[in-house]
Amino acid sequence: MDSQAGPPIVVLAGLGGDLGGRIARALIAEGAEVRALVRRAGSGGPRHAPEIAGLTRLAVDYADAPSLRAACRDAACVVSALNGLEPVILEAQGRLLDAAVAAGVPRFIPCDFALDFTKTRPGDNRNLDLRRSFMARVDAAPIRATSILNGAFAELLTGEAPIILRPLRRVLYWGDVDQPLDFTTKDDVARYTAAAALDAESPRILRIAGDVVTPRDLAAMMSTLTGAQFGTWRAGSLGRLSRIIRVVRRLTPASDAVFPVWQGLQYLRDMASGLGRLHPLDNDRYGTRPWTSTRQVVNGEG
Are residues 100 and 162 both part of a single domain? Predict the structure, then answer.
C-alpha cells in the first residue's frame, strides 16, 4: 500500500447489520475515512444499510473480484462485520479477504465477535465452527489479522437470552451458579474495534469483556435494582443441556436462520461450561475507558 496523506482509510463490510453501523460511527469518531461496502442490487441484496454522515458507500458484488479489490485499494485495514452462515462467513468473507490481500491491504479484522472459540470444542457450536474454519484460512493468508473476542453481547440480558426471568424473579443457569460469564455491549465492542482497526501493531487476538458476572451475581443485582428478591434456578447439568440441544435441533425444520433456538443454546452451553471464558483480558490496550456494566444494561442505562 502506498503511503498517503490524510486520515487512514478503513473498509467496512456489514454496514447493514446492527454491529456494522455502530463500528462505522466509531471509526468516524476516531477520525478514519470509512468506505462502507453495501451489496449491489441483484448480488444477494440489496440489504438495508443506515445512512451515516461522514462515510462513503460503495455498492459491490462479492462475486466481482476486480471491483472488490478496487474498493480495498489504499486501505489501512479491512473490517468485516458480516454475519451469516457458510455462504457469508466462508464464501463472501473469503472473497473479501482475497480482495484485501490482492489490493495490498496490511490488516484484516474478521467477524469473530464472540466468546473464545479458540478454547471450545469443535463440533459443539455451528456458528463458532464457521469462525474457526475462517480463522484457519486467514492465518494462511499473507495479511496481519486481528480477531476481537467479546463474550456475549450484553443486550441479550434484556430479554432475548433465557437468563434473567423477570416474571419468575429468577436467574436461570446451567451447571455452576458461580461460573463467571463475559458480557460486552455492542457499542463498547464497536469503539474497541475502531481503535484496533487503527492500531498497526494489534495482536492476532484481542479479548475484551465489559463485565464479568456469575448467575449468583445477576440474581443479587436484580434484587437490588427491583427491590424484589431474585433467586437462582438451576435448569440442570451441562449434560442435560446437551441432550436438550440435540432434541431441539432434530425437531427444528431446516432453514438458513443464523440463530435458531438450538444455536442460542449451544452458545449458552459454551458460556456455562467456562470453555469460552476470555482470559487474559485486553480491555486496557487502548487506554482506560468506561465499560458498560450489566447493571447499566439491565437498568436501561447502557
Answer: no
